[in-house]
User: Fold this.
Amino acid sequence: MKVLFTLHDEVTPDAGGMGVTAGLANVYRELGHEVESFSFGQLPQRLPFRAKALLFPEFAAWRMSRTDAGVIDAANGDAWVFGHLRRRLKGVRRPLLVTRSHGIVHTADVARREEAARGGLDLSWKYPLYWGGWKLKEVADSLRLADLCLFLNVEERQLAIERLGVDERRARVVDNGLPEDMIGLPLDLGAESDPVRIAHIGSYLPLKGVRYAAAALTEVLERHPEATVSFLGPGCPPERVLGDYPPALHPRVAVVPKYRREEMPGLLARHSVVVSATLKEGFGLGILEGMACGLTAVTADAAGPLQFVRDGENGLVVPRADAAAMAAALELLIADPALLRRLRERAHATAQNYSWKRIAPETLELYAEALERRHTKLEMA
Assistant:
């Protein structure tokens, strides 16, 4: 089988949808399949980033119409132009068209508007024109025109069916995964007397609930002078993160703006908790990576993390936009080292089930089922 991935960003192995694409592609190749990728890297270099984002569906349609791949696995919003073309024009190839959600923008739109209503986010007057308007239509069209839609959680799948008109027979939930070097990492729980070290993994953005995390973490750090917190990959200067914490706490707040994924186990050594106050999350890969390194999770109840974090079993789940609840959950773990160790053991065990080597073949089976379904439909037509 030949697969063309498209992604409206650069394809690198270290982050988000980019890491997902790279992870799947690597295992597909190991299984003997041919894989191509089309991303910003193939666009004219003179184009600014914003222009690339706006024009990518048109460039992607050009690339899709020329591929001999049997499957096109396109990220949210990438395939709406090609989807319309293949429906209306004779002679346009009809490979299996898959739209893959790396976190559906419609749930992000709801989260942004709710956070704006709470006063935690200023939405520009331009917001309804693209991200809160046209982009929603692009993604909805991509989903409706696809032969198969892949979602990261049940909430997003249900929204697509009920609000966007996606056929439920074509809508499936898939997991994200971890590369093999993240599977089977040794679990070092340290001593019960060790100070609690907390990690926040991923972007430092309003939708990640960072103002609620800052309030909770400030309270915990002030009450426990031995506790520390590390921010890995915030995608912003350290000053942006430190500005949300009192200067007296800065020596106990470490910020690593960028890192390579293979560095993560070392960076998380001696940490015990990964925290996420996210307001919206398609999956929560950073949380899962932390669990693979032996950390338990304290996470807000966004749909993505709930796919693998079970409250009281391998982590603690708190309501979104509730700093007090997050602080209380962290206090519980600090006060009960035995509970912390038990949750860390179970979190580590959970992460072992999320190897790309397990997930990629399951995704290939979904392709095959969709191809068979379409073949049967054509025979009956």
Remarks:
- The two ends are 26 Å apart (CA to CA).
- The longest strand covers residues 2-6.
- The chain has a mean pLDDT of 93.
- DSSP finds 13 helices and twelve strands in the chain.
